[in-house]
Amino acid sequence: MAHFIISAPNIHHLPADTGIEIAFAGRSNAGKSSALNALTGQKTLARTSKTPGRTQLINLFQVTDGIRLVDLPGYGYAEVPKEVKIKWQQALGEYLQLRASLKGLVVLMDIRHPLKELDQQMIEWAVTAEIPILALLTKADKLASGARKAQLIRVREAILPFMGDIQVEYFSTLKKIGGDKLQEKLDYWFSQTPTTGEAHQDAM
User: Fold this and answer.
1) What is the pTM for the complete model shown?
2) What is the pLDDT of residue 204?
3) Would you call 8 exposed, middle or buried from its count of C-beta atoms within 10 A (0-12, 13-18, 19+)?
4) Which of 33, 49, 106, 141 makes an SS bond possible with 175, Cβ 3.0 to 4.6 Å?
5) Backbone torsions φ then ψ of 102, nearest 5 degrees
6) Which fold has domain 3-203?
């Protein structure tokens, strides 16, 4: 059963850079915690809150030995002080660019408001670091079936210029939509060759 390991302000406080990590990122109201809880079948594994911006640290959860899920700090919430936003962005950038055990990134975006500026920045960072991405269009239950499919097509077309390994699917924890696509992608990433060295940490 997945369980919490540690909360860290940046990569320098994380455990050894070994094994496999799959990270979840998104705006503060994108539904990261709900997705993690649904994925693991645990209602309280990741904190959920009606106040966006509660996740201000890098939170690690161990799935099995050497395999971890990572809840990255939420971004883009206007009421968070500017200096806090800067720290979050720095921590996110360092994690994506320097963490060798990171094998995949799930970017969660509200299906009604996808690809905001910070979403695009996150995708650009991951593409530059050659990290494969699963973009989940969350809260898919908020749109009718036809509108949902049309939005999926629009976003798939919009991400083509990023020239990265990016898969786009829609998702809803409430209606249990897209969970199979998420699990399929995670199973594939979990099957990748684990990182055994600590080259990145040595370099820092």
Assistant:
1) 0.89
2) 32
3) middle
4) 141
5) -70, 115
6) Rossmann fold (3.40.50)
